[in-house]
Each structure stands twice: as C-alpha cells, then as structure tokens.
Amino acid sequence: MPVTRERGQRQVFCGLAGIVWLHRKMQDAFFLVVGSRTCAHLLQSAAGVMVFAEPRFATAILQDRDLAGLADCNEELDRVVTELLARRPDIGTLFLVASCPSEVIKLDLDTAAERLAASQQGRVQILAYSGSGLDTTFTQGEDTCLTALVPRMPELPAAERSLLVLGTLPDIVEDQFARLFAEIGIAPVHFLPPRKAAELPPVGPGTLLLAAQPFVGETAAALAKRGATLIEAPYPFGIEGSRAWFAAAAAAWGLPAERVEAAIAAPVARAERGLANYREQLAGKRISFLPDSQLEIPLGRFLSRECGMQLTEVGVPYLDRRMMAAELELLPAGLRLTEGQDLERQLDRLRQDRPDLTVCGLGLANPLEAEGLTTKWSIELVFSPVHGFDQAADLAELFARPLNRRQRLAF
Amino acid sequence: MQLTVWTYEGPPHIGAMRVAASMRDVHCVLHAPQGDTYADLLFTMIARSAKRPPVTYTTFQARDLGGDTAELVRKTLQDTVQRFKPRALLVGEACTAELIQDQPGAMAEGMGFDIPVVPLELPAFTRKENWGASETFFSLVRALLRGHKPAERPAMTGRRPRANLLGPTMLGFRCRDDVTEVTRLLASVGVDVNVVAPAGAAPEDLLRLPEADFNVCLYPEVAYSTCAWLERMFQQPTVKTVPIGVGASRDFLLEVGQVAGIDPAPAIAAAQTRLPWYSRSVDSTYLTGKRVFIFGDATHVIAAARVATEELGFEVVGLGSYSREFARELRAAAEGYGVEALITDDYLQVEARVLELAPELVLGTQMERHIAKRAGIPCAVISAPVHVQDFPARYAPQMGFEGANVIFDTWVHPLMMGLEEHLITMFREDIEFNDEAAPSHLGPAARQGGAQTRAEPAADDDAEGAGADDAIIWDSDAEKELRKIPFFVRGKARRNTERFARERGVATITVETLYDAKAHFGR
C-alpha cells in the first residue's frame, strides 16, 4: 500500500486529550498535568462541558519563577502533589503527565514520580508519562499512559497463560468481549487499562496480546519486552473485523475456528440485521478521513467493505505499520492514503473531491459544513461504544446520522 | 507552580486569537506546538462560528526541535500571507514557543510584507487571556494609527454625534447582542455608531477610529488601554459606565449626554424595561435579602453587584474577580457592600469562599456552576468563561434595558419559587416535596441534605483553624431542629450557631442555643 507523507500545519489534539476518557476508565486514578495555562485550558475546553462535582484531573501550571531553575521546580512539584493528595485522599494512582513546556525545560517527571512515590511510602502509586504535543498525537496519549503502567504489572506465573486485551474499551463492550471469550473457551482474559489502576493484570511469557485499539503500539512493544506475544489481527470494528479479531485470538490460543463461529453466531446474525438498514444509506457514498486518532484505517476498512462506501482519502496522523499490517491488507487497492498533514493542502484536495461525508475534528467540522460539506466529527468515535458485533450497527449509524440529518432539514 | 483544577482564563495567545477571529481581513500566525490548534474549537464549537478562526499555527513537533524551528516559522509566515492575503498580520507565540525564543515577530517584520505586521509580546507564564486580547487590540490599533495626524473632527453642531464601540470580541460574554442593544441605546439619544471593534471590524475600519467624537469602552478588560491611548492621541473622551442593569443604563445615557452635549432625559423617560416592575411586584418580595455571592470578570461583577442590591434587593455576601487588572475598582465596589473582595484566579480559593459563606445564590462563571453544583446551591452565569449554552441563538443581551429583562429572568430562575419555599418550611415531611426533592437542576448534592452538608467542609476547616480542642457538639434535638430550617439557609444557620456557641464557650449546642443564636444574628 503506497503512502503519501505530508508535513505542514497539523490540526490535531495533543496526547493530553487522552485524559478526558482515561480518567473515567480508571476510577481510582488522578491525572496531574505539569504544564502551562494552555494545557489547563485545553483540558477544560475538551472536558469542560461535563460539569464534574470533582474532576479527576488538574494542571500544575508553571509560573515564571519555575522557569528560572530546575531544583526549585522539583520542590514546587512536591508541594503541589502533597497539596493535591491532601485534598483528594481517595487517589490510588497519580499520573504526572508531561507537556510541551515541561519537556522543553527538561523537567524529569520520571525521577519526580519515583521520589514522590517514596515519600508517600507506597500509599499512592505515582507514575509519569508524556502527553505533549511535541511527542504525541491525540490517542497516542493513551499509549504513553499505558506504557507507563507496564513495568508495574505483576509477573504472570511461568506455567500459566492468559489473554490480555489492550486499549480502552467502554465498560459495556469490555463485558461483552469477556463473555464471548469465556464462551470460546479462552480464560483468563484481562484488560489494559483496568477499571482500577491499582488492579493491574499480570503479564509474562504466557501472555497473548490482543490489541483492541490501533494506537497502542508502544504499549504492545513494552509488553513484548516482558514476554507477551502480540497477535496480529484486524481491529474489532464491524462484523468482519470483530470475527477476524476473535478468530486470531482463538487460533493463537490453539482452539478450532468452529468454537469461535459457534460463540459468535448469534451476535453476528444480530449485527447483520442491524447493519442492513445502514448499508442502504451508506452504500456508494464517498468518504474522506482527515487525520486524527489512528482509527481512520480500520474504520475506512469497515465502511468500504461492510457498508459499501467509497474511500476518497484516508489520512492518518502517523502510520505504525506493525500495528496496522492486518488492516492494510484489507484496504481497497488504489486508495489515497496519507500520513501526516499539511492542513491547507489537504483542505484544497477535500474541496476538490467534495466527498459525501468528511470525518474531521471539531475545529474543522462547522466551517466545512458551512461550505456545504457534510461532516462526521471524529472525536466521538473515541468516546462511543463502537467495537464488536453488537456495536457494528451503532458504528454505522454514527456515519449515517449526519447524512440522514442533512436530508431531514428543510433549511 | 500553581495547582489548577479549572482556569478562568486561557493563555494570552487565546486573547490574541479572539481579536483576530473577531475581525475581518486580519490573520494571526502563532508559533505553537502540535496540539495547540485545540483553540480553534472554542470558536467553531462554543461560539459556533461557521468559519475557521484566521489563525495559522507552526505546529512544531519534537523532531523539529532538533532542526531549524525558525525556518519553519519563516515558511509558515510566507505561505500564510500568500494564501490568505490578509490586510494586517499578527504574529505571536504560544507558551512553548516562548521558551524556545525564535522571535517570530521580529522575523516577520524583516520579511518585507507589504501589509502592516504587528509582532505580539504575550508573556504566557505571567499574563492571561484578557490581557492578551487587550494587548493585541491595543498593538494593532497603535500600529495602524501611529503617525496619523488626528484629522480635525468637524464640529458636532449640525450633525449627529458619533461613537466607537470598543471591546466586543468573539468568546466574550453576550457581546453579539450587547452591541445591538448599546447601538439601540445610543440611537435613542441620537448618537450614531462610527466603528465597532474588534468585533466585525477590518483594518481599514480601525483607521476610521479617530473620526468618532468619543469612545464607548464596553468591555474594559479588552478595550481600556486602547481607549486610554485614543484619548491621549486623538482627544477622544471615553464613556466609562458599562450599561449593565437599569440604573447603569440610565447612568450610561447620562454620561453619553454629557460627552455628546445632548439631553438624554426624554430617552430615559421613554425607556422600556420590565425589570423594575417585575422586581417591585409582590411576587418578588421573597427575593429580599437573598444572600448572593458574585464572581467573574471585574466588569460583570461590579455591574452584577449593583443590580443585585439596588434592583433585586439581594444582599451581596461576597464578591470577587479573576481580573487582577481591575482589582482596585473591584475592591472599591466591595467596600461599598461591606465585604472584602476576593481577587484570585485560583478556583479552589473561590470554592472555599463559597462554601464558607454558604450563599443562597451564586452568580458566576462556568466554573462557579461546578462549585455550586457540588455545593447544591442555585447558580446563574454572569460572566465568561462560559460554555456553549451561554452563546444562545435567541437575543440575550446583558446590557441596556432588554439586558435588564434578561438578567431578571436568568437570576431568579434558579431560585425556588416563593410558594414552594413557604410550603417546604411549613411541612417538612412530605414524601415528594421536601428538601431532598430540591430542583433537579441542582444535581444530586442538593438532594443529599442540601446546604447543610455543603457548609460542612468549610465549618470543619474553621474548627481546625480555631484549635481542635474547642470542638462543638450538637445534641440530637438541636440537630433535628436545625433540619427544620429550610435547606438554602441551613448552612448559614449552622455556622452562625456554632460561631455563637464558640464565642460564648458553649460546648454543646441545644435547641435553646440555636434560637439564642437566631435572635442574636437576626434572620
């Protein structure tokens, strides 16, 4: 699959945005960004519409005097963390999240995390990762967060094996998957991230690793270093993707394909019924993806193969060929696949293509709508239950909805 | 470092973006890392703008830091001017770029563009959004008008006076409708609007600023320094009254009348506003003395305090602002209400003050909605920062006489209606209609015991402050009696009683102590 690489202005979130869903998934975790007012502003702009009684994230905003000398900066961080832990004694795990400013001034948060953990005498687990825009794009923030958890995971006993599902899934999807794995006969199955950061799943040479999200490449590599084996599979979007995903897990576990087919028969039948309606609405429609979350390739695959859409352009912020190998094989030949972004040029192409549907971020969605292009804002795909058989129709509906809406409105 | 849960203002470059996005034919180039484009969302989503803000970012990444970020800036500037062909260019840095010091402003000035280039100094680690907006607007006006001889303004006789409306920006609180309303106010006394800026103005419009007879400083947070400069350079007087509330709108017209040499009395007499009658009607009697806490930017807080006391009959028990630039004005206003102004941008301090004061109504920003929800206190929004619901489709000014109508509805709405309030006080054991069944918009905190639980954290802090040995015990009858006090004043009653007991060395609060305290403190 040939890929065009582009460089220029990028219209994407930084990895800090991952906090918005990670703090909901891990109920005992708190995310403290060490950064500037810009970082704090980003977080509240992204999450502010949820009126939290008490949010589980905050920012330690660097002040002028912090920029003067590093020793002072570390003392300041200790003070802020102590203050925070006093305010929120229920915090089990504290993530120190690095940002662009903290990285440019080379504030070492890994060392700070160790020092602070020691001073807390094990009452609180303290970890560090980077969510900076310099290093990470949107969902990559989850990857760096999970990577930080890997060294804390307990060792899986030598003789045992387990399946580890990697990447944040909505609780309802996680439960569905757990039931299907049980029916297929794979056990034990663990999920990373867990619902409590203090209850990390074990990992070892007996661990088979199955990625549920395409953006967890670094974590997968870190788990491989601890002996886990990555199962190559497409991602569980739509019927085809989910079937192949479960099948790959079963094959790696040493189970016959019939076991999978028997277990998924009913959900597949339901999903087919659910999808039929949306396929009618989507078939033949042209769609473009602007780079955002790394979900563009698997979703494009689902929409083209199962919903009959035509892919005009698929843009990804970066392409991890190892994580994407199985997906790339399923993409239609001759697809215009672009890695990176040069925003204005990409918009020129988009205006020329005038696809029926454009998947893009919220900074672009309304302006493109005003130009007469129908859009699907991409962040929702990260926040909605879209994986697995029983969500296949919901996933298609997310793309059909804006088209449907455009038809309904008289003005 | 400052621990921040919520921030009242964004960094200063957001202020610069607000000015650029408010105007026409102005483009802003920001040296900023990948990800800082999140700010576009504020305009396209919160303000629901149909076009992208005219801002181009360099979006550098880690790999660029090893190379030549200055070259990246140069290329971005070149491409941007070529593509968008703006008539004025703003060049600034976001916080991270400030640390690597590529001097994009100076670079742009040296690139030979044939349009005005305005380099922006936006110290991201000391200043904030409103300062950034004010500085950007001022820098742009100064750059465009520098060297312009103040053209002789024709005498005001024989024509209608003209005013500039300065300060409205995108993402400002209700700026869109305030401009309409103030234009209407000015028209009512026969004054025309010369230029509205930054909102809707192009660089050429700014060149016409000196043609006005005076400036109306609608939003001092954004326009004060520009107005002061125009006053110095072009001898244009500034109308400083911000017309929020009936009284302030009248004062505004009086000031305009004075500056423009016209008699505003007929216009004031003809003004249509329902607030005074609504507030005077007996239905509003129960609003008397409602204890209110006010927080926001200085302009809206000062205005709100006046409306609350003079026009709605509330009692201001606390007020504060995150606008440090106007701390002096705010302190002076607070003194008038016998309270101490809280000047802070620390959300946690505001929260502590609200819990301590246990008011019956909070007038604040989006952030105070969080505090009020947690504490189960009714709340209305009076100032930015605000979320999408406060950029409404309907006409919703805060200024002028229609603004007063909007304010009456908005502030009274979250309070429990009078009859409901009476019935809850009289019969406390109704299964549906009791304290726990407080209005659903107050969230679960209100249903879990109301103001009493809320005031508790503050009360505990207080007890610690006074020394742990004088812990005060409520006997069970007194506790039961306390629960008969309507929830919205219960927090205050608890605090007063404890204070009363502490002052008199009473160790156990009985029903008697409760009523003694009630008699002592009055309501």
How do you describe this structure in short?
Chain A has 411 residues and is of the alpha/beta class. In chain A, 46% of the residues lie in helices and 16% in strands. Chain B folds into four domains: 12-145, Rossmann fold (3-Layer(aba) Sandwich), CATH 3.40.50; 162-271, Nitrogenase molybdenum iron protein domain (Rossmann fold); 275-415, Nitrogenase molybdenum iron protein domain (Rossmann fold, 3-Layer(aba) Sandwich), CATH 3.40.50; 473-521, Proto-chlorophyllide reductase 57 kD subunit B (Helicase, Ruva Protein, domain 3, Orthogonal Bundle), CATH 1.10.8.
Keywords, separated by commas or semicolons:
heterodimer; A: 411 residues; alpha/beta; Rossmann fold; 3 domains; six-stranded parallel β-sheet; four-stranded parallel β-sheet; 14 strands; globular; B: 523 residues; 4 domains; five-stranded parallel β-sheet; 24 helices; 16 strands; 12% strand; Nase/OxRdtase_comp1 (chain A); chlorophyll biosynthesis (chain A); ATP binding (chain A)
Specify the CATH homologous superfamily of the largest domain in chain B: Nitrogenase molybdenum iron protein domain
- Note the total helix count of chain A: 16
Derived from helix and strand composition plus strand pairing, the structural class of chain B reads alpha/beta
Instruction: Kindly estimate the percentage of residues of chain A that lie in beta strands according to DSSP.
Output: 15-25%
Overall radius of gyration of chain A? 22 Å
Largest sheet of chain B: 5 strands, parallel
Q: Can you tell me the number of structural domains of chain A?
A: 3
Shape of chain A: globular
| Secondary structure category of chain A | alpha/beta
Catalogue the unreliable spans of chain A.
none
* Name of the CATH architecture of the largest domain in chain B: 3-Layer(aba) Sandwich
Number of helices of chain B: 24
